[in-house]
């Protein structure tokens, strides 16, 4: 008896241990580890699992289904899938005391232990793993599209790299243990799905119905329409594929007999399906209603919206598929970990989970990179699994478990769903199979397109010219060909390759080799007159591709060897399948004609055949698709601003030049430092009779790459038959043109781009979005200029001592009034009056003697306060002599210190713990003067209070007139978004006058499309070596007009009427008045509709109600050399640049330094008010030789704070290299402005 009890105890202990072990495993597995979810968790998870990027293809599915069937199928699918989802929620707890936490557990209960696994697990794994791979591809492609849209100038990257980036995110997120831990990710994904769906349908609705919209079913025959119909059924089925994770999501919700989990789960499902309806139905119906059967398979492509919308929608898709991947991956993780722990007896641990999940993510990532067309295959194989798990497998389980009465409503509904689901499972793969067959020719493993360069060799002595470039698919054969060619390659191509109409330009000929190789070779024209006796082919390397192998290589090699040994005359050379080639040509011509008609371009009737022949030649020569040739023509048509949309033969030559420039530009970007030689260069090389004695300026490579609409940029402009040589002849390639780092972001605020790479442009530079932005560029920014003095043509060099005295006295007076009006300080008093009490005085900092200001030589120059009339003449003489001493440098000790009405006093700064002063600064001093000879300062106030100082220097009438002007331009008087590019001269390097930095800056601006381009001088730099030496044979005005204004005129003609340019002169401009303040340039460019505005130096203006101040004099450098300061002990390092800019704003003067720095032609007789800053600008531009910066400074305290964005853009060129410029977008507040300082 005792033995039996002991045995029972052992058995019970073993059972308890097994139960405890099982509980520990369940607590570790991701599905059952946490059961604390709320009903809204299930709503997030179901929306994330259900709504996918496929919603954007629903309008395309509607186009293949038609109105009646399409609407019926959408509604029916929504109802059926909601019903089957309700069944699964109900069956989760159908057995009392047991929860079917996983889909396969419910299948085992319905069909048996083994059969249930065989039925459910393969389908569930196929769906979940397949969807994860599709989402890996979708996430990578969407990320690439977003990055390419945001940064069109960045170097293009392979899609595989973006898939890798997307996968790295999941390497971290996949280690979140369970569903509840990814709730935040799921919520973000659900919000993003609703966001990009809303963008799709609302943008479609805003665009409006197309006038020629058609709702006919696509497809030329009835059979094609039926197959398209079947394929659309698969698209709809895929859209509702979310049932595979429903039970796993419900398993995370707590459940008791009193409060079962099905109630909160069903609540979340209902909310999720409402969101699904809000996403699916508007996108499908509105998209199809607006675009009809012309809608693309991605409605965002059809919308053709600006870059920001496309980038935003793609980023929303990326965030959504990040969450969806985790939702579908969690059941897979659970299956794998269950097998490892329960079947293979691994111990649950972090290392096991880390290894399994990392391996799974890497597997899906590698498959996604290797098979980027996996989504197309999934449409076929997924038809066997999406329909069962979503449409009819839950119904089969319901019938098997509940066994409803025959012919009852439940029985009929379930069998209806089963029949419909089986039908869908059969017909959907049929349509998908046709799609795969059609698209199979485009399927490539590890696909990527890249350019493989040649090494170019040119020799004019032996007549041998090497190939210049090769463009091919990565899988193609990339050889380097060195060949002796006949003079007329066109004739040879006719005999050998069966292309009778290849175009041969003046200096280059394109030869298309075998069509399957997708290879284009461009060769220079040889000067020989006979056929080559041999063709030497050197293959550098060979990459095998599954579609080619060595068959193509051996065929080409045999042909070359036969040609090399052939002694036959030219007419006896064979050619390759001329009939096939002509058939392809005719098909391509028909496609080109059709595309022209679809884009509403009319071919001139009697010229149609000739136009199509030339377009075909262009396609063959430059390896351009028919769709690309039509898109290029559209860009050419828009830029030439033709009136009627017709294609004329007379424009084909100009169109050819446009295509050639596109080719040159793309090669330059792919090949850094490569120079594409034009006909002028070739003539110079081949006809070099004088050897090295003649030098030509053909233009730098960057010039050729920057202007896509002119054949080349010669640095010798020609006008009226007169040729100007700007400076001495330059080398063929300049140091600036050979620089490697281009458009690198040096510094940015509120914006974190890394590089704006000019070296390689995005392959879709002339995309539809760019064309739309050029044709419909947006609102033109308003412009209001404050002040116009000094005026152009004013007389200067009449500066009198009296003018200087009055200007300085007025400054002190205005500052004193401002301090007094603020009520923050005492009434200013004479600082020379002895007093034991603390006083407040306002005056100007002066230096006692020669040399730099220091703490011991500081004096305070005060205004004339309370001076007896008998002493005024003494003070006047005293001040005049003081000004003479400051002007001509002799030492003068003021007598005003010795007289009762004296206005200068020594300033003692020992007792102040902080100050920053410079000569000419107006300050407020708190302190006392016990002796009358020395003002002992306790506090230095170095800026005007903000209170009541706006428009400090403007009389009321002028201020009112300005307010009316602003209101007339913009009734809202509200700041709007403003995009600006800012650059300061010099605009050319010191080794030449080619103005290469300016050319590249304007090309950059053409791509960025700013509303405003602000250029500050010097434009024709008087300190340029060639200007100083006088070696130019052009006048300074001619250089300014030909090199600056001509390029700006071309820029504005390209940009359109929305763009503006502001020019601000510099005292270093050799073609302008040497005086400061400086009048504006007297320029009136024709036909620019006031797009070019010239401002005074300094200048203050408003653009879109954004106040901008600028001064081209290097005040920062001058202040830096004269300022002295003391920082409080323990205060840490100070921001010196910020402090210098604060001086300018605090003094309300663009040039508060007095006496001015050496070489500054300061003239107070012209318009001293032009130096004053009437109000704090939103943006202050102060170019300087000191290091570039962009800072948001705060003036004032408390509620009266004012913020200003202060910018030093640096110099566009420095020595023989490039400098920096600024690109910013103002969003209504300096703190939210995006600004980047970019190295050119």
UniProtKB/TrEMBL annotation:
Domain called DNA polymerase alpha subunit B OB: residue spans: 896-941
DNA polymerase alpha/delta/epsilon subunit B domain span: 980-1191
Keywords carried by this UniProt record: Amino-acid transport, Cell membrane, DNA replication, Membrane, Nucleus, Transmembrane, Transmembrane helix, Transport
Pfam families noted in UniProt: Aa_trans (PF01490), DNA_pol_E_B (PF04042), OB_DPOA2 (PF22062), Pol_alpha_B_N (PF08418)
Transmembrane segment boundaries: 39-61, 67-86, 159-176, 182-201, 269-291, 311-333, 354-374, 380-399, 411-433
Disordered as annotated region, ranges: 691-727
Membrane topology listed for this record: Multi-pass membrane protein
Residue spans of biased composition, Polar residues class: 701-723
Signal peptide (UniProt feature, chain positions): none
GO cellular component, one term: plasma membrane
Biological process annotations from GO: DNA replication initiation
Amino acid transporter transmembrane domain boundaries: 36-432
Localization in the cell: Cell membrane; Nucleus
Primary subcellular site in the record, as a coarse category: membrane
Gene3D superfamilies: 3.60.21.60, Amino acid/polyamine transporter I, DNA polymerase alpha-primase, subunit B, N-terminal domain
Matches recorded under InterPro entries: AA_transpt_TM (IPR013057), DNA_pol_a/d/e_bsu (IPR007185), DNA_pol_alpha_B_N_sf (IPR043034), DNA_pol_alpha_bsu (IPR016722), OB_DPOA2 (IPR054300), Pol_alpha_B_N (IPR013627)
Span of domain DNA polymerase alpha subunit B N-terminal: 590-645
GO molecular function annotation: amino acid transmembrane transporter activity; DNA binding
Family: Belongs to the amino acid/polyamine transporter 2 family. Amino acid/auxin permease (AAAP) (TC 2.A.18.2) subfamily.
Identification of the protein by name: DNA polymerase alpha subunit B
Lineage: Eukaryota, Viridiplantae, Streptophyta, Embryophyta, Tracheophyta
